[in-house]
Structures are given as structure tokens and as C-alpha cells.
Amino acid sequence: MLGVLKDPMKSTPFNRRDFIRASAIATLGFHILPAAARGANSRIQVGCIGTNGKGRVDTMATAAAGAEIIALCDVADPRQPGLGRQKQKKNKAGAAETILDTFPQARFFTDYRTMLRDMPGIDAVTVSTPDHHHFHASMLAMRGGKHVYCQKPISHSIWEARRMAETAVECKVQTQMGNQAHAGEPIRRGVELIRAGVIGRVSEVHAWTNRPIWPQGMTAWPKAEKVPKGLDWDLWIGPAPFRDYSPEIAPFNWRGYWDFGAGALGDMGCHIMDMPYWALGLTAPTSVEAKHEGGNAISAPRWSTVTYQFPRSILGGPVKFVWYDGVVSKEGVYQHTPPEELWKADFPTADHVFRRFDLVLVGEKGRMFFNRSRQDWVYKPESLTNGFTQPPKSIARVPGGTQEGKGEDGGGAYVEWLNAIKTGTPALSNFASSGPFSETVLLGNLALRVGRRIDWDAKSLTATNAPEAASIVRRTYRKGWELA
User: Fold this and answer.
1) How far apart are alpha carbons 357 and 340 in whole angstroms?
2) Which of 84, 174, 207, 428 pairs as cysteine with 420 (C-beta 3.0–4.6 A)?
3) Residue 14 half-sphere exposure toward CB, CA atoms < 13 A
4) Is 177 in the same domain as 187?
5) 146 shares a domain with 125
6) Of 266, 268, 279, 253, which Cα lies nearest the Cα of 198?
7) What digits encode the pLDDT tens for the residues 178-193?
8) Do 161 and 243 belong together in one domain?
């Protein structure tokens, strides 16, 4: 029954009245023994929302970074055969091992609302769900005084990103978006170099990805199939419009459907666009326009090119920022790439550009080809750095953040977030900065979905030339999941 969800740990139903009550309690800041009260050396107690796929990585890395995992939540029960047992790890004896075997002391839930209601002693949560749950899980946690690490983009809609950034400040919690490379050496050094003027004032940025690596451009919903044992499909749908279960949607291909995901741009934009957005001090664009193939009301396109116009950077002058997805080689020829005059004369083959790098910045002195997970960047002309004084390391570095700051070893972003909880010094990808950044990324999808240029008023979150965009800027939630 829609809107009436079973608590897996009790026999009583968890209905809309419980949901509102839980929200109200959380809003009052009801929280037992926060980490600050235990002392700086105490282990932070974390509940992990989403434990399969990327959720497992976030859970393992948070534990490796020093947290104590006391609760696990996933709509796919790992104790049941089916979806919950996919991609299991093997122990040393070669036997399948679930996330519950790894953390036997953790209490398991299938509904994060129940977890937050029944375990107020949790200090912090990781949110590693499909995009359409990011807002609800994070907001309820923050309103309960819990710190939040949320995967990118931090929300499904633009309005949600704004509310999450505001709520983090209101609730005085430490937050972090899961664009892990933000904590790594390559991005932080890249920011310092660009701001020091290594290529001069930047006028253009071109960023690309080979994604989507899942289906996009679908024109109809897939045929309904039987829900696998151990999967609570109604909970998986959550605040989104109800759709019948299909393996063509979950556990992975949801990214291509607008109801649940944000396409290739939402998946990779918060990673690849990060360094120049940060380095140039960009805020909101004044306009965004897109071209694509296959995008429609149901699905993100098979490929797209999205152009953002920013009025000014901290280096001065406007910036054109172009995003390209679906940049793949077909019969040896790359498709949907940046203009050839930016790269073709400087590299032996297109592979040297599109496999090695993921963006190029165009400055008044030359160009910088950059990749967030390596430091052998290329400058054109190659003489660009001759006589250039290397700037000092002015941005704080993170233990374990030598490269992207990712993986199950607990480095980089996870250490930075836990340190923020202990010290009160915010992580650098906290919601105050990653919220506006997520808004910008998601504006590209707004242009794709509306089908024309968007003239954007960031203050009011309004597409001034496209009133029909309002329902995408702020989506409507399924009955029983209302949250403001």
C-alpha cells in the first residue's frame, strides 16, 4: 500500500503519521550523546544509508577512516537471496560475505526513516542511495542533528540542493558531498596553479566524459517484472512517482531515468567540472543551453553538449563552460568532442586527449589539459611554465588524499569529513559550496529537459524565460513522502 511502509524491526506499520512525527522530533534537534560530547578522541558512530555498490565503498571507507559503523540501511536486504546479495565480497576462505558479516555489530534497517527514528544516538550518516533519495535521507538526518556525507549530486532537483545547503547551516552539522577527488592532491594543486595565473585569465572550459555506460534515450518504461526476494520495491521508489520493478531500472540503470537519476551529467559533472568551477570561483550561470540526441520526458539523452555562460570569474571576465558526454570512439573516430582546434594539432591521436584527460582550460596565455586523478598535466604551448613561479600550497591537504581520495582505504574525503565532525572545521566540499555547485550541474539537465536555452535567476531559482521549468526545479513527492 503506497504511503504505508513496514518497519522491518517491528510489527507495527510505519505510516505518514510516524513520518511527520519523526520529522518533528528531528527538527527539535533530538540527539543523544553527539560526538562532541564524547570528546575528540572518541569514535564517531555512523549509520550508512545504502550499502550496495557505491554504498559499500562509502561504508568501508568511512570505517577505515576511523568511524564506528553502528547501523546499516538498504532496501535490498543482504540476508535474503536476490538483489541484496549481488556483488558480494569474498572472505579469505573464498566464501561470500555480506555487509552484515563485515559489521556484525551494526543494526540493519530497510527504511532510513525508521533507522533515524529508532537510533537517535547515531552521530552521522552516509547517503549512498539513488539520487532521488538524497534529499529526504540527508534532510531528515540533518534535522536530527546528524552530520552527513552524501553522494553526488547532493540532490535530485535544484531546489533540493538549495534547501540542503541552508539546512546544513541552520542545523550546524558537518557535511560533505561525495565528489571524492575534491580532497585529492590533483584538484587542490590545480586550483592553486590556475589562481596563480599559470595560463592567465581563463575564458573557456571544455569538460568531457565517455558516460553514459548505461542505457539512455529510452522512450517507454520497461515491462514490469517480479520483484526479487529481499527487495522492498516500494521503499526503493520512495518519493518518486511509482513505477513497476524492472531489472532495466535497478540496481544500476536508474541513472538514465529522470524520475530517479540525473543522467551522465549528474553522474560525472560533479567530478569533472569541479576543479575549474572551484579555481575560477564560479557561482551561478546566467544562461544554459543544450543540444542532444535521444533525450525525452522519460530518459536522459544518449549524448549531450551543454553550454553554461558565467558572467565573471575571480580572474576577471566571463567564462564559457561546455560539457560533453557520450565522448566515445566509434571505428576509431571520437564523437561529440570539443572543437578540434583546441587539441588536434597538439596530440598524436585523439586517444591521447580523451583517454588521458577530462577537461581543458583555455586562458589568455595558453591551455591546460587536466585530469583529476593524475598530475602529469599538459600545457600548450609547452613553454608556458618556463619562468613561472610555482605558488605555495595554500589549500589544506588531507591525509590519504594523494590522488582522488577515494576507495575503501578510508583516505581523502572520508578522513576530511570525520575530521570536520571532530574539530568543527568544515570539509571543503561541504554543502555550503557543493550545494551551489550541484545546482549548476543540474541546471544543465534543466536545459536538456525543457528543450531550450534557460535564462537563470539564481536568487529566486527561476528560469525567467521558461515558466514550465518550475516543476523540474522543484519536484512533487509521492504521497506519504512530503518534505519541505
Assistant:
1) 15
2) 174
3) 22
4) no
5) yes
6) 279
7) 999 999 999 999 999 9
8) no
Supply 90's cell numbers.
569474498
Cβ neighbors of 330 (< 8 A, separation 6 or more) are none
The answer on pLDDT for 224 being more than 50 is yes
Pairing of strands 13-14, 5-6: antiparallel
Q: Identify whether the C-beta of residue 29 lies closer than 8 Å to the C-beta of residue 19.
A: no
pTM for the model stands at: 0.89
For 56, the domain range is 5-181+408-430
**C-alpha cell at position 33:** 550523546
Please name the amino acid found at residue 99.
I
- Tracing cell 529522470 back to the chain, one arrives at 258
How many structural domains comprise the chain? 2
- Relative to beta strand 454-457, strand 319-325 is unpaired
pLDDT band at residue 80 using 50, 70 and 90 as cut-offs:
confident
Whose cell is 575534491? That residue is 182
Q: How far is CA 460 from the centre of its chain?
A: 23
Cβ atoms of 197 and 387 within 8 Å: the answer is no
Nearest one of 350, 414, 479 to 69, comparing CA atoms: 414
**329 lies in the same domain as 453:** yes
